[in-house]
Design brief:
The protein contains four helices and nine strands. The chain is α/β, with parallel strands linked by helices. The two termini are 29 Å apart. Bound molecules: 1-O-pyrophosphono-5-O-phosphono-alpha-D-ribofuranose. The site of 1-O-pyrophosphono-5-O-phosphono-alpha-D-ribofuranose has 17 residues, from strand 2, strand 5 and helix 3. It is found in: Cytoplasm.
Length: 187
């Protein structure tokens, strides 16, 4: 789905399909160099990171193993809290593995801070992060993102995996939603 398909719902485009592709290609080249002899395990947190991890791993020039996790953070509304529970776990033993987490967005940082600690606790040899988007204004917890995509303002963004009410994940770029789309929910 493209912006033109949902024009009435979109205020403006923030990161184009071409910009996303170019950035992912760049980072994938760096990662391919950095991990050439490390047999890396790429981990994605469902569901938002799916688009990112697919595009990213396809752009790598080395074979990697992939695994997925489903986490839930309990909090009010769109705010995530510090309490994270595993809804669906990895099927891979991470002991001694070099792990690269591919994430769509770092918001408060709580999800990634928890995940990095959890993977280290399980015995990973190393844990690094690739995040396509970061919202610095929302950061609450320190997280070291080695491979950085785009910094974006604190606006309601959808697309390339990011949803509003489970929709718009299949938009091929990243865009700001019109307030009228979610206004009813905020009343
Ligand atoms: C989003 C996103 C990250 C997390 C980032 O997932 O995919 O995993 O929030 O937020 P944080 O930095 O404040 O922890 P979400 O919980 O919305 O679920 P989804 O991926 O299924 O959309």
């Amino acid at each position: 789905m493209r912006i033109a398909d949902i024009q009435d719902d979109i205020d403006h485009e923030l990161v184009s399909k071409e910009q996303i592709e170019a950035k992912i290609k760049d980072i994938a080249a760096r990662v391919s160099d950095d991990y050439r002899d490390k047999d890396p395990l790429v981990i994605a947190v469902l569901k938002g990171a799916v688009n990112t991890v697919v595009a990213f791993t396809q752009a790598l020039s080395i074979p990697v193993q992939m695994d997925f996790m489903s986490l839930s953070s309990y909090g009010s509304g769109t705010e995530s809290s510090g309490t994270i529970t595993v809804r669906q776990d990895l099927s891979t033993d991470v002991r001694g593995r070099h792990i690269l987490i591919a994430e769509d967005i770092v918001d408060s940082g709580r999800t990634l801070a928890w995940l990095v600690e959890e993977l280290k606790r399980r015995g990973a040899a190393s844990v690094e992060i690739f995040a396509l988007l970061e919202k610095p204004a929302r950061r609450e917890v320190e997280v070291d993102v080695k491979y950085k995509g785009f910094e974006i303002p604190d606006e309601f963004v959808v697309g390339f995996g990011l949803d509003y009410d489970e929709r718009y994940r299949n938009l091929d770029s990243i865009a700001v939603l019109k307030p009228s789309v979610y206004q009813g929910d905020e009343a």
